[in-house]
Amino acid sequence: MQTLNLGPSVIKQIDPRRWIFPVLIFVLLALALSDCFFTIDQTELGNVRRFGTVIYPKTQPLGPGLHFKLPFIDKADKLRITLQTLHIPAFDVLTVDNQRVSIEENFNYTISPTQAYHVMYEVGRAGNTDIEEQLIPVTHDRTARVFAVQNMVNVNINREVIQAQVEKDITTSAENLFGISAHSLQIASIKPSENFMRSIDEATMAKNGAIAAENQLRTKQFEAQQVAATAKGAADAAIEQARGQAQSTKVNAEANKEKLELEGAGLKANLEAQMAPFGGPDKYVLYLQAKAALNWNGQTPQIMTSGGGSATNLILPLPALALPKQ
Fold this sequence. Notes:
Blueprint: H1 8-13, H2 20-34, E1 37-40, E2 44-50, E3 53-54, E4 65-68, E5 74-80, E6 84-94, E7 100-110, H3 116-121, H4 131-147, H5 159-178, E8 181-192, H6 194-275, H7 281-295, E9 302-303, E10 312-313
Antiparallel strand pairs: 1-4, 2-3, 2-5, 6-7, 7-8, 9-10
């Protein structure tokens, strides 16, 4: 078995103290080189701070492209200027009748290039790190002010008006306070408290019950009116029938009366016509007596009764005939 013999010269050549320093220098140079350059996208503007001081003036922010800065000393800040949507999580507000409402909103805005410096270095912390943190409290406050004068019962009816007022107030405040350009605001959700919804459900059920009872009452009233109308119709029909019968009886009586009067008049006229040749009723009576005497057969007149019994003798007295003087 052979033994490896490393002399002092070989140990000196592999001494780590000789290459640690070059490696550190290389690493530091690589880090410095990687920190010297940064890019700004097409949707952004930027600037550079050196020991907290902004390098480029307010009116000349850095545009899209590759830019240089001092490594480990300068800090690059970027700001998005295209349309952004800020989602505002659900928060509670109170109405004028002390009803709690949960609101959820979406706020759309852009940042003008002329306001990029203001937003990055004059609002909140430096850079674009907390602009949304600044906007959210403002949206909460302006929304709460609008709902504070609304009655919960009328919120749904006035939703369009509430939407327009909240959007106007938040837009004005965002532009005045932060210099951003507001585009639109949507109230994504208006959720009343569970107690209010429960009371609404109970009121709706009570109202539906009252409507059902009222409809039932109206049905009963309608049925009663139908019965009354039917009875009245029957009564009116009976009255008209009785009136018609009375009128018919009256007409018949008048007709019979007129008939009798006409028959009597006819008989009178006939009798007068028969008596006229005799010059008066006395002579006409004598004529009738003489005629009856001539036609008598010597037998007693008989009349048969309607019961089918025996004949009944009917003796008709005749006036005595006045014999003419010899």
